[in-house]
Specification:
The chain has two domains: 2-126, Response regulator (Rossmann fold, 3-Layer(aba) Sandwich); 136-191, Arc Repressor Mutant, subunit A. It is built from ten helices and four strands, in the order H-H-E-H-E-H-E-H-E-H-H-H-H-H. The chain has helices at residues 2-7, 20-29, 46-56, 71-80, 92-103, 111-129, 136-146, 151-158, 162-176, 181-191; strands at residues 34-38, 61-66, 84-87, 108-109.
């Protein structure tokens, strides 16, 4: 792999190391643009190494090569600052393209990883924006219901009539397609609309 990368006219391989500690030590002495790193290393793993390298040089771009694509590895690497995540059996051509892309500032993710990232982002977006269907009053009612408040207690807390609470609950059940108030609260909690 190193030999093939070195044959590319626009890529200079500055070093190849047996472990992350040696790589980090070299980075302290001489900066480089892109690091291609294995996830599973003896001693410090790829995630820890990425974090340390970016502490030394925040401009370095790291590609992690891994045989694993579980959430812990993928999001651990991205959280640590890796800009690339590819399978360990990536072709040389794909790796060369990835190195060039990272050098230009573009992130490179394996398609299976891209799907995970987009899914996680979509879930986060739903949590941040809240439910587009529930009004503020309905959200308040569900929040109080999740704390065990009865309709009467919710009405007292919100300074509204108990009939208004019941009416809102009917609307909540309709909107969330819930069987009862407990089911509605469960849906809202799981969706992150209330805490």
């Amino acid at each position: 792999m190193v030999r093939v990368l070195n044959q590319e006219f626009d890529i200079d391989v500055l070093g190849s190391w047996n472990n992350a500690e040696e790589c980090i030590e070299s980075l302290r002495k001489e900066s480089f643009d892109v690091a291609v790193m294995d996830m599973k290393l003896i001693g410090m793993n790829g995630i820890e190494a990425t974090r340390k390298m970016l502490e030394i040089d925040p401009s370095i771009k790291v590609i992690i090569l891994s045989a694993f694509s579980g959430d812990e590895e993928v999001f651990g690497a991205i959280s640590a600052g890796a800009m690339g995540y590819l399978p360990k059996d990536v072709t040389v051509e794909a790796l060369v393209d990835a190195v060039r892309s990272l050098y230009r500032g573009h992130a490179v993710l394996d398609p299976s990883v891209t799907h995970k990232v987009l899914e996680r982002f979509s879930n986060m977006k739903k949590k941040i924006s809240g439910s587009p269907e529930l009004s503020n009053i309905e959200t308040q009612i569900l929040t109080l219901a999740s704390k065990g408040y009865s309709n009467k207690e919710i009405a007292l807390e919100m300074d509204v009539k108990e009939g208004a609470v019941k009416s809102n609950f009917r609307e909540i059940l309709r909107k969330l397609d819930a069987r009862d108030r407990t089911h509605a609260v469960t849906i809202a909690l799981k969706s992150g609309w209330i805490e």
